[in-house]
Amino acid sequence: MSQPGGSVLVVDVGTSGVRAAIVRPDATIEHEHHVALLPDTPAPGLVEFDAAKMADAVLTVAAAALAHGGPVAAVGIANQRASSVVWERSSGKPVAPGIGWQDLRTVGTCLVLQGEGIRLAPNASATKVMAILDEVDPERSRAEQGELCFGTVDSWVAWTLSGGAASGADALHVTDATNAGVTALIDPATIGWDEPLLQKLKIPSPMMPTVVDSSGAIGPATALPGAPPICGMAGDQQASLVGQGCTLAGLAKATFGTGGMLDQCTGTGPGPDGAARGGAGTFPIVAFRVGGHATWGTEAVMLSAGTCIEWLRDDLGLLATAHESESVARQCASSGDVWFVPALLGLGTPVWDFGARGTIVGLTRGSGRPEIVRAVLEGVAHRGADLVDASESDSGHAIESLRIDGGMSENTVFVQALADAIGRPVEISPVLEATTLGAGLLAGLAIGTYGSTEELATTFTPRRTVEPDGDDTGRSVARERWLAARAKAEATIPELSGISF
Fold it and tell me: Is the dihedral of CA 84, 87, 89, 93 positive or negative?
């Protein structure tokens, strides 16, 4: 490993809170500080957040981490992706509530745009910024004059850390390539803003941030003591990909939290022809960009993972705590041919069926609490196998082993079920959430702690590796039975199944 370049402060803004920590040159994480910051849901389908409170939380946790673990040589940023903020350039004040990535207010807009030949998903930033502008600047006059700034959460954090309006023209208005890629507003060939698309959507280009590398000197964090340089930025899933050492083609990680995301590194080279889904239902992503050169990846999506455990706990009352799912599932050796399809919010990759619904098949008089809990864990594991199969199909790269993080990675019954479903080893991340570590590694690369992205791959040492039990025949039978159950879950609500983004 290269000579250490110093410690890194990482600010990690998630959906439910803001965290700061110090990442040391040996890739350990210390002095974590967290402030809860839950989004608001003013009406069904709407998800908003207070960007000013987010900025205050960023400065609070950053100051606390530095007070206990500083000084640092650089700053890294990791963030929830696609959530959108519009603010005044002169005052630095948000002009409206931020719109969260889960917000569905623009579904109708997306369907109208489809009729015009423009295919956008409501979770991307594109229609979110349109919605904010329609409210605060319907004529687009302020945006055209550059009086308004648009940014995803990484942009807002960089603006905040660089002093915001207090720094005047020196405040950073940037976004990194990974975050720009999930706005649905870039040209994949250049990873720059798609000017014709911006014009069609009436999003003035003067309000757009500059797209920068995920690793490199971006600008000083003048709001922090010593003004350390911001040197790393990445969206949460890409940061987790880097944090688990998946910087070489073929390496893949899955994060099992409320939902699930499987990201696979596919290497450098020409970008995709567009942002459309692949034939197996994955999306192309910018994994990271260094020195102006992009490394690409694919992303497969599971809409319901830990949500299913919350359902067992909060709605069915079968569990007192989410952690109890492990011990309850251990009370039976098998689910007794009970099969659960985790489609509580529909199905993502590979079928993308928003009309699918959660399904349990195979219940008998002997099916009890342990069998149902085990079936739920195994159902999420089989959805993980869906993501692996789809990623390999769309990327053309085999996944020899799968690295995982997220809350469900602590559940040993689930992890064994996942290894059995995919038929290959599962490597558990040494940290529960690898986003903070990934942003720290990207910043460390910029300051010379690591010599290359290839070296970043050597930083990963799994906490534990779980091998699959049983043989290929048994796995094939289980997959066939579960896939038959999945087919029963599809198109439960045909009207919703007909919607595609």
Answer: negative
Q: Residue 107 belongs to what H/E stretch?
A: helix 107-115
Q: Which of 418, 408, 410 is nearest to 378 (CA)?
A: 418
| DSSP 3-state of 128 | helix
Q: What does pLDDT average to in each consecutive run of 10 residues of the chain (501 residues)?
A: 74 95 95 95 93 98 96 97 97 97 94 94 96 98 98 98 86 97 93 96 98 98 97 98 98 96 91 78 96 96 96 96 97 97 96 97 97 98 98 97 97 98 98 96 97 96 96 94 98 94 87
Considering the entire predicted model, what is its pTM?
Answer: 0.95
Domain segments of the chain: what residues?
Answer: 8-238, 245-428+470-501
Give 428-493 as a DSSP string: E-SSS--HHHHHHHHHHHHTTSSS-HHHHGGG---SEEEPPPS-HHHHHHHHHHHHHHHHHHTTSS
In whole angstroms, give the CA distance from residue 81 to residue 93.
Answer: 21
Going from the C-alpha of 341 to that of each of 124, 208, 304, 352, 490, the distances in angstroms are 26, 41, 10, 14, 10
**CATH classification for the domain delimited by 245-428+470-501, as one of 3.30.420.40, 3.40.50.720, 3.80.30.20, 1.10.150.170:** 3.30.420.40
Which CATH code of 3.40.50.1820, 1.10.1760.20, 3.40.50.1980, 3.30.420.40 fits the domain covering 8-238?
Answer: 3.30.420.40
